[in-house]
Structures are given as C-alpha cells and as structure tokens.
Write a sequence for this structure.
C-alpha cells in the first residue's frame, strides 16, 4: 500500500517541486538577470579601460589636452 501511494504522489511532487514549478521559474529569472548584469558590468569595465588608454595616449601627445577635455567632459555630462 505504501508503494502505491508513493507512485501516485510522485507526479504531484514533481509538478509542485520540479523544474517547471513557479518557484524554479522565479529562481531561473533571478539567476539569468544576475548573469546579464555581470556581463554588462564586464563590458562597462572594458570600455572604461579603453577610454583610460585613449585619454593617456592623448595626454602623452598633447600635454594641454586634459586641461581642455576634462572641463568640456564635465559640461557635456551636466
């Protein structure tokens, strides 16, 4: 009798707690969102490194360029 109850309960348990359960859909959404945020953060860091290299190259070539570009950049942001 106990074995029969277990085999009848298995589909119900899988539906409630299996990979298609609403709790797992929410967890999958949170996990995929966290992964996407991490990828965007890596891309932003790479872009910041490239901008820093470009600024250093320009500053090495023309010593007065940071004196003009820094205030202009702040004005553009504001």
């Amino acid at each position: 009798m106990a074995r029969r109850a277990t085999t009848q309960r298995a589909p119900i348990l899988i539906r409630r707690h299996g990979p298609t359960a609403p709790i797992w859909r929410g967890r999958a959404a949170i996990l995929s969102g966290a992964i996407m945020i991490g990828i965007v953060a890596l891309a932003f860091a790479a872009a910041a490194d490239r901008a820093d290299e470009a600024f250093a190259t320009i500053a090495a070539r023309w010593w007065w360029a940071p004196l003009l570009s820094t205030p202009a950049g702040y004005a553009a942001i504001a």
Remarks:
- The helical segments are 2-17, 22-61, 65-77.
- The CA atoms of residues 53 and 59 lie 10 Å apart.
- The chain has a mean pLDDT of 86.
- The first helix runs from residue 2 to 17.
